[in-house]
Amino acid sequence: MSDAPQKEGRLIWSRYYSAFIPAGPACPSLFDRLKAASGAIGGIAVTGLLCGLMLGNGLAHPLLVAPMGATAVLLFAVPASPLAQPWPVLGGNVISALVGIAVAKAVPDPTLAAALAVGAAITIMSLLRCLHPPGGAVALSAALGVKGVASSYLFALVPVGVNTLLLLVVAILFHRIAGHNYPHVAPKAPTPHGTADPAPLLRAGPSDQDVADALHGFGDALDVDEADLRQLLADAELRAAERLHGTVPCAEIMSRDVIHVSSHQPIAQVRTLMQERSLLSLPVLDDAGRVQGIIGALDLGKDGAQAGDIAHRPLLVHADTPVARLIGPLSSGARRAAIVVDADQRLKGLITQTDLLASLALRANAMVAVQPS
Known about the structure:
It is built from 14 helices and six strands. The radius of gyration is 30 Å and the shape is elongated. Helix 4 packs antiparallel against helix 5, helix 4 (86-106) runs parallel beside helix 6 and helix 4 packs antiparallel against helix 7 (157-178). The chain is mainly α. The chain has two domains: 30-178, no CATH class; 250-365, CBS-domain, CATH 3.10.580.10. Strand 1, helix 11 and strand 2 form a beta-alpha-beta unit.
C-alpha cells in the first residue's frame, strides 16, 4: 500500500507545528546575542540605579516599571526594528501610560478598563506612528494601578518617562560603542556622482512603490522598514545573479592585449595615449612590472607630473574569479574596470563595464534559449 497519504499527513502536521516556532531574527551570531544580552543588563541596571538616585530612593531601591524589560529586548536585541526607534519607544510608553490612566479613571470596572486601555493605546500609538509593543503592557499597568502607584497622570512621566528616556540614552551609547547603526537609518548605497538618484543596483531592482505595493498586498504587518526591505531585496537579487552567472571565470572575458603605462610616464603622454586609443581605463605598472594603480579619464585632471601621481587604487581580481563577482563593484558607478593579475600582482588582463555587460547579456540569452517552450 502506498505511504503517500501518511507522508502528506506528516507534512501537514510539520507545517502546523512549525508555525508555533518561528525562525526568529535573521542571522544573529552567538556573539551578537551575547552583546544584546550584555546591553540589556547594563541598560536596565543603569536605568534603575539612576532613577533611584534621582528620585531619592537610593541605590538599593531602583525605581523601574516592568514593561522596561520588554523595551530593553527591542532596544538591544533588534535595534533596527521600526518599533525600537526613539520616537516609538519614548512616545509609545508615555502615551500608553496616559491612555491607561485616563481610561481607568473613566471606567470603574477594572477588567473592562484594562481591556479598553490596551486597545486604545494600540489605536493611538498607531495613529501617532509610535507603535511600541511594551506600550500595551504600560497601558495595562497604568489601568490596573490607577488606585495605587498610577493614581496620578505624573506616573506617565515618573517613572515611565524617566525610565524610558534613561534606557534610550544607554541604548544609544551602547550601540555607538558596539558600532551599530542606532537610531537606525536604512543604509544608502553611495552614488559617486553626488546626485539624488539611487545607486544603479537599486534603480534596477524594485522601486519604493513596488515595495510599498508588495507590503500592502501581503496583508499582514511586517516589522521591517520599507527602505531596509528594498536594500535587502537588491542585495538578494545581486547574490542570485552571482550564483546564476558564477560559472564563468574572468579569464574567459578579459582583454589580454592590454595597453598600459609605467608609473614614471609623463601625464601629457598618458593623456595623448588615452585620447588616441579612446581608452577610459589605463593600468599603471611599477618598475618591477606589478600593477600599481589605474588611471581613468577623470584622473587626468588631477595634479601631478607622472602617471603614478594620479593613479588610484584598482579593483584587482584573478583569472579564476567568477565574472559575477564584478556585478556589484562595476555597477556601483564608482569603478569602470577591473584588472586581472596573477599571484605576483602582474598584469594578465582587463575587464571593463562593457565586457561585463556583453558577458551577462550573452549568458542571459543562452539561458532563455534553453528554456522549454
